[in-house]
Structures are given as structure tokens and as C-alpha cells.
Amino acid sequence: MSMMPLLLPMSTCSAITAVTVSVLREQAEMSSVVVPTLMVLERYTAAEAAHYLADSCAVLHAVMKKNMTTGDVCDHLCNLIKLVCGESRAFRVQCIQCGLLESVLEAVKYHSNHASFLFNVCDILILLAEEPALDAMACRFDVVSLLLHFLSSSFMSDPSFIALSLQALHAVVCLSASMAEHFAKKQGLTYLCHVLEDNNTSLEVVTAGAEFLASLASQYDIARDVIATGLIPALLRVLAVNRARSPADLLACFQTLRALACLSIDCVKTLLAAQAVSTLVATLRSLAAPATANQTVNQTAGAVSQTADQTADQTADQTADDQVTTECVWVLYQCSTTQEGCEELQRCGVEAALQGLSPAIAPDHDI
């Protein structure tokens, strides 16, 4: 069970930090001393820890190097690093420059079955991706390959860890065009396709993967690789196996399909071949379906007792539904730019599905 952080006066925090950092500096090789000392530092709030530990990166680095094979030390130390990285830009830069991140990455080979440590490693990479200096470091130590290994079927099968690994990969790969190119050369999109197919009922994995793919599509020319790896059919299969869910739960997938549709005419043709039009038209119909008589009666009866929170939830749901509708319409518009797309739209009855849409949802040009 995680411990609640302590809210201490600033002068007390300063004194405790001075003592604990001194202990870590002098007793860095004694794990029986280091672990409880790190636990004391973890009890601070993140902001306090950042304020007083931002200049202690070298001390933490020394502790990591001398205890790299000791799981408890690495676990508590990475948790502390995560806390401070979240609050201090100076500490994030120091992590990259002084070699602390390098040691954290090296420690992974000793603790590949230590879940909490690996979660912290992913969180640290996500936080450090805010700094441009991570780009060269991530390339030199091939962080992309490490994160792709995290996604492999032989590694951890926890959907939460897979989703977090995807988020870390997203943060690192989108640092620069050279990093995205390195990701492509490592067959990264093939990994991503397999992850989506193997975890197609996990919303957190599907959302993380779709958001990553949408970012890549919006920044880089990945059309050829997207087609070659089968990512478009994979996304449509995700929608198919989750058809019982609310379309709003899969908003990230619809947004990604729109991003991919805008990449090239070949991506549009791939969408058509994968029966995207019938899927999207069916989604529009489901979102436009009127409430049944029983639903109307129940809504009327419950209106008096409806709370503000319930009203807010309904508003949020409607907003999400409108977003899904918008994404569907834009993908259908891209499909209408080809002759075969127009024929497919007519066959699927798109005119009826589009009736009654808000003018704000329709694209700039008619479908």
C-alpha cells in the first residue's frame, strides 16, 4: 500500500532533505540504509521533493550505480525520480545530462520482472520527453527498442503496462523526425499493429495505440508503412469487436481513421477495401437513433430527481458522441473523393445517415 505524502513546514523539509541526502551520499552501498532513507524522501509532497532534491541528481545517480541489481532500491529510487521529474525542469535536464537516466535504463536488464519498477521507468521517460535533450540520449541508448520489447508478447501481459509502454513510446518517438524514422526502421508499426490486434478489447491499450498512431500520421509521412502493416484493417476490427460499446469509448480510433484517411489516396483506397464506409455509416445511424418510448418515459420520470452531476455526465456524453459523428463524416468525405468511394457511399445509404446532422458537423464540401 502506498504511503500518503507528508505536508511539512519548509524549514523542516530542508533539514530532513539535508540529512537524508547526506546519508545517501555516505551510505550509498548499504541497501538496508538506503531503502528506508528513500522511503523518507518519498513521503514528501512532489513539489517539496522537487524543490530540495533538484540539485541532488548526482547523489541519486551514485546510489543507482551502486545498487543496480537490488530491486527494492531501484524501485524506491525510480519512484522518487518520477516524483521530482514531474515538478522540476532542472532535475529533468540533470537526469539526462548526468547519466542518471542511462543507469535507470541499464537497471532494466536486472529487473525485467519487477512490475512497479518498470511502470516507473515508463513514467520517467514520458516526463523526460518534455526535454529536447532526450532525443539524442534516446537514440544513443536505443530507448525505442527497449519500449518495443516491453510491448512484445513474451514480456508483461498486463494491459495497463502495455498502455503505459505505448504512451512512453509515443512520447519518445514523436520527439523528432529522426526518432520517428528510427521507429519505422525497427518495424515499430508492425509491433503496434500486433498490439492492437492482441489487445483489441482493452480500451486503455486501444486508446493509447490509436493516439500514438494519430500523432505519427499528423507529423510524418507514414502512409506506405501504414498500408503495408495492415493498421487500417486492424483499427476497423477493433471497432467491430467493440460494437457493443458506446462509440464515444472508441473516439481515439475514429480520430485516427480520419488522420490516416488524410495521408494519401492509397490510404483512402485501403479504407474502402476494408469496408470502412459500411462501418462508419452504421456508427452514424446508431448515434442518430431516437430514444425508444420506454427510454423517453424513464427520462421524463427521472428528470425531477436528476442531479447536477448526472446532467454534466449527459452533456459530456453528447459532446463525445458529436465528436465521433464529426470524425465519421470527415472520413466519409475523404472516401467521397474517389469514384469507388462515391459508389460505396450510395450503396450504404449515406444520404439517410447524414440527414439531420448539425451544420457544424458537416465538412466544408458536400459528400
What does this protein look like?
There is one protein chain. With 367 residues, the chain is mainly alpha-helical. Helix content is 72%, strand content 0%. Helix 8 packs parallel to helix 11. The longest helix is centred in the C-terminal third of the chain and has 28 residues. The chain is elongated and about 75 Å long. About 4% of the residues have low confidence.
Show the helix and strand layout:
Elements (H helix, E strand, L loop, with lengths): L9 H17 L4 H12 L3 H8 L3 H10 L4 H15 L3 H9 L2 H8 L7 H14 L5 H7 L2 H9 L7 H15 L3 H9 L2 H11 L4 H17 L3 H7 L1 H11 L9 H11 L3 H9 L2 H13 L4 H10 L5 H28 L3 H9 L2 H5 L13
Helix pairs in contact: 1-2, 1-3, 2-5, 3-5, 4-7, 5-8, 8-11, 10-11, 11-14, 13-14, 13-16, 14-17, 17-21, 19-21
H-E string: HHHHHHHHHHHHHHHHHHHHHHH
Helix share bin: over 70%
Q: What sort of overall outline do the alpha carbons produce when their principal axes are compared? A: elongated
First-last Cα distance: 55 Å
Please report which band the strand proportion falls in: under 5%, 5-15%, 15-25%, 25-35%, 35-45% or over 45%.
Answer: under 5%
Radius of gyration: 25 Å
What is the total tally of β strands? 0
| Biggest sheet features | none
Average pLDDT, rounded to a whole number, is 87
- Helical region count? 23
Which segments are poorly predicted (pLDDT under 50) over 5 or more consecutive residues?
291-304
Class from secondary-structure proportions = mainly alpha
